[in-house]
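Contributing new records

If you add data, match the layout below exactly. Sequence lines come first and carry their own label; structure lines follow with theirs. Keep one chain per record. Anything else will be rejected by the validation script.
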Amino acid sequence: MDIIQSVRWSDDGSGVRIIDQRLLPERLVECELRGLDDVVNAIGNLAVRGAPAIGIAGAMGLVTLLAPNAADDRDTVIARAREVAAIIRTTRPTAVNLPWALDRLLDRAARTDGDGAAIIAAMRAEASAILEEDRAMCRRIGENGATLLHDGARVLTHCNAGALATGGIGTALAPIYVAAERGQNVEVFVDESRPLLQGSRLTAWELQRAGIPVTVLTDGMAASLMREQRIDLCIVGADRIAANGDVANKIGTYNLAIAARYHDVPLVVAAPSSTFDPATATGREIVIEQRAADEVIRWGTRQTAPPGVCVYNPAFDVTPAELVSAIVTDHGVCRPPYRFT
């Protein structure tokens, strides 16, 4: 299988190399992030997206932006790191992985002795560790989640929680990749995932590239497929999981969960341990990012709604824990009742 790598260090190690996901599926283009605007815009404008991937990109970007400070003293570098991290942190408020990764680098800096160069070297090592750990976590999620798939399984997924969204083989797609590696036949149905079509643009492209049978449908068609008994399991990713098991994920996940419960189809969430937020008691406390109206009323240069119309465009919704059949993590498969502390 040809599984893509979405984020990594540039070849010379001086920048962050990403796939510009805004251009898929028409073009596969890699670009390098070297300045603050590069990092902030890439994360904010969804050139790099998916909770684990933006955490990795944010961490690597922070290290890259500190390179000019290598000759400074320890205190100056740490102060600059905190300043830059605070800016990067604001780009996507819902996914917990971004602040988690930035805080991890800042903590490593605070615990490191030596001059500015030593601090930056330690933060680089930490960012690289986050990437490698994410790859390993994705693999473990895949192995744990593959136990839920039988040969010939028909799986429905929403948005993109594959290799494009992580440093490894994905979260929601990881069990599918592992099952395919083991010789199992798995058929995947993909919601378009409006308004930015991450399902049809990214997941379908990624799965097709890997040789996995995939069918694209609009978000409003999922319940009809379930009624026809053509879906065995729904698997989605997560941007933040509260202590009680409430799940924030791409807008439309809640709709899918309601339909799945009505039709007695299990809905499974796949996520790495970094996505769990024990400090957030329930989903009601999760800040939901509101995005620009143009994402809804335009597609490319084409106007798809009347000018000046009011627009509601949250990037995520929250699925209550009682609608989640299981949560697959790198540590195993969790069943309700959920309590993550």
